[in-house]
Amino acid sequence: VQLQESCPGLVKPSQTLSLTCTVSGGSITTNYYYWSWIRQPPGKGLEWMGAIAYSGSTYYSPSLESRTTISRDIAKNMGYLQMNNLKPEDTGVYLCNIVTRTRTYWGQGTQVTVSS
Fold first, then answer.
1. What distance, in Å, lies between the first and last C-alpha atoms of the chain?
2. Measured between alpha carbons, how far is 98 from 65 in angstroms, rounded to an integer?
3. Residue 22: exposed, middle, or buried by beta-carbon count in 10 A (0-12, 13-18, 19+)?
4. How many Å is the maximal CA-CA distance in the chain?
5. The CA-based dihedral angle spanning residues 10, 83, 89, 108, taken in that order and rounded to the nearest 10 degrees
6. Contact, 51 vs 110, CB < 8 A?
7. Distance CA 41, CA 94 (A)
8. N or C: at which end does the chain have fewer Cβ atoms within 10 angstroms?
């Protein structure tokens, strides 16, 4: 199973970021998983943004909750991240991650640059 994030490239401040995470080479068939989004600003460590559980429940970092929505479409093998009102400090590499009982899958990450 491989995960691949979409490539939004350059986004302007105040715009909305929409990312997809596509599963290929298989399907997430387990009934226990957490599908997360993580980001890494330049020169800083990984920051967990939020996750959607197998149940459909969502969890968000308190600092990002007001601007972030995470969802998924299991039938399409796709996960989604939407973040509103982007700021320059949202610049970084964005990664998706799926954790099951036995495995952890990572996407390779996609660069998001917020600049006017």
1. 37
2. 20
3. middle
4. 43
5. -60
6. no
7. 9
8. C
Question: Which two three-digit tokens encode residue 106?
Answer: 């990572």
Cross-strand pairs, 106 = 97
Is the pLDDT reported for residue 41 higher than 80?
Answer: yes
Whole-number pLDDT of residue 74: 86
User: Rounded CA gap, 18 and 45, in Å?
Assistant: 22
Residue 29 has pLDDT above 80, yes or no: no
Residue 32: per-residue pLDDT: 85
Task: Report the distance separating Cα 78 and Cα 87, nearest Å.
Answer: 26
Q: What is the pLDDT of residues 66-82, one digit of tens each?
A: 999 999 998 899 999 99
Rounded Cα gap, residues 38 and 70, in angstroms: 12
Residue 28 predicted with pLDDT over 80: no
